[in-house]
Structures are given as structure tokens and as C-alpha cells.
Here is the input.
Amino acid sequence: MTALQRILGFESSCDETGVALVEVDGRRPPRLVAQALHSQISMHQAYGGVVPELASRDHVRRVLPLTREVLSQAGLALHDVDLVAYTQGPGLAGALLVGAGVAVSLAAALDVPALPVHHLEGHLLSPFLSADPPEFPFVALLVSGGHTQLMRVDDVGSYEILGETIDDAAGEAFDKSAKLLGLPYPGGPHLARMAEFGNPEAFELPRPLLHSGKPDFSFAGLKTAVLTQVKKIGDSPCEQTKADLAASTQAAIVEVLVKKSLMALKETGLMRLVVAGGVGANAKLREQLNAACTKRGVRVHYPELSLCTDNGAMIAMAAALRVQRGMAQARQDGGFEVRPRWDLSAV
Ligand code: KG4
Ligand code: ZN
Here is the structure.
């Protein structure tokens, strides 16, 4: 049993600076006390994607004001913090170094441990911040801008990859298709909005690897197929045609994600599915997963909508769950490294 511990978490792996404070007390579920987030999306939009150097510089600008905001929301001071957690990877090296550098320095100044966290573990455990937290074991569908994986999760730290993408991630498929449709970065939510008015059957698009018999994914071909259709509909298609193509693209991605999730559930015999990562915010994906899982008696858990994309709360929460289990491998020598590439099954 742990006594009350306050964990300050930092996320800076890509284009969001997130800071949060989570309390963990004995075996009770950890509690999110405060959080603050700054999204760089509007800054990167002019370039059509994330510019790593600009991302790092903006994290530098935002991280301390956000930390002050979190402490002020919580009514606490820095010396109330018992542990500092930070995203060690995967992500952009320069961006990760900002969060890691600040977290480790802060921990050294406060003489408390600094705990590195795997970004995807943060996503995976983010539904524990929801009003309806899951129970272990479960199948996790992790769908973000950089990753698409199905995993068997037996407990914190026990992650077996059942299948993953062999090329683009689902978020990338959304973003690249959206870009072809002239939508701003990151295109996923824009494409989803446009798809609301479209006919998902208007365009015939491929469902790559749908019948591979394995819970693996490939989305690169879909982007090429969307490009072919964009060329066909010409330079100035009407809004309805664009909406139809958006809806057809979304339908193709969602169908693959749903079918492969069902396959992973069947393969493992598990009756619980956790969906995490930015694409987990997609309403069509939620609707179709809910329908398919209800039919099979499978329970589905999602993070709160606002916690689907990158945030500090999921990093502090992952650290809290590790602390609770006596699994927190904190470094106290003041040294740190970041891991831009880091396999979750190696955690
Ligand atoms: O998890 P996340 O914030 O960042 C990574 O760790 O990659 O995920 C961002 C991804 C982007 O590709 C974005 O377009 C996608 O999640 N996304 C969505 C939606 N909201 C965010 N894709 C489809 N529909 C959405 N509603
Ligand atoms: Zn992420």
C-alpha cells in the first residue's frame, strides 16, 4: 500500500504540451486533480504538418506556464509534488527532450524521483481516467497518428502485440486522405465532420488486409486509392462529392478497425475492448464498435473525448498505476535519455 503521493506528469512527444497532477492513495483508483494543455495545431497548420523544430521551441515556451497553471488549479505548490513523470518516447526527439529535461531537472531540484513513461502506455491506460474504467485483462485497440496496434493487456506493463500496421497508421490514413481533400492538418477530425453529410457507399475504396486472417493492418494503399479518386473528380468537385469521398474513406478505415478488433477479441477469448489514441475520438468508429461489441456481449471502454488525443493526464495516470503496483522504475541520478523509437512490448 502506498501513502498519498502526488504525481506531476509531462507530455511533449509531438504537438501538444500537456501537464497534469494525479493523486494516488493506497489501492484507491488514482485521481486526476488538475491538468492543462496547449495544442500547437494552429501553429503547424500553415505547414500542413508538424515542424519538429517549431514543436520543440513551443514546448519550451509553454511547459512552465502550464505547470504553474496546474499547481494553481490544484491549490498546491511545487514542494507538494512527490514524483515527476514524463514521456520518454516514442515521439519527436527534440520535443521529447524538452519535457524530459524539465521533468528531470524539476525532480532533481525537489529531490524526488523522475519516472519515464511510454507514450503509448499513457494512451492505453487513459480510459482509467474515465467514469467507467476497465478491468484487466482486455484487448486494446491503439489508434493514433503514429501507431495502429491491437494488444492483449493482462495488467499494467503486460502488453502483447497481437497485430499492427505494416505501413501507415489509421490516423495517418485519415490525415493524408484529408490533405488530398484540401482539409487542414490534422485532417482526421475535419474529414470526420465532412463525412457526416456524405454517402459512405458512393466510392468503392479498398479495405487492405481485411481478409488476411490476422489482426494486422495496412493503410498505405487506401491513401493511393483516395488520390486516384481525387484526380477523377477533378479540381473543383461539388461539396457533396467531397463529402461522399470523405464518408467512403472513413467507412473503409472504420470497417477494417472494427473487423480486426473483433478478430483479436475472438483470438484471445477476451470480452473487453479498450480503445485509445486520437482516432478513438472518431464518432463513426465508436458507433460501429459499440454496435458490433454489444451484439457479442463485449464491453467497450473509451477515454473521455478530451483525453483521446495527447495530454499530460494520461502520462501522470500511467505513472500512478505503476507506483500503485510498486512498478515505478524511477531514476534518481539526474540523468535521462529519450527514446524517439520505442516498442511498447519492450516496456
Ligand atoms: O493520439 P494522438 O493525439 O497523437 C499521436 O500520438 O499520434 O492522435 C492524433 C491523430 C491524428 O492523426 C488525428 O487526425 C486523429 O488522431 N484524430 C481523429 C479524430 N480526432 C483525432 N481521426 C479521426 N476522427 C477524429 N474525430
Ligand atoms: Zn499520442
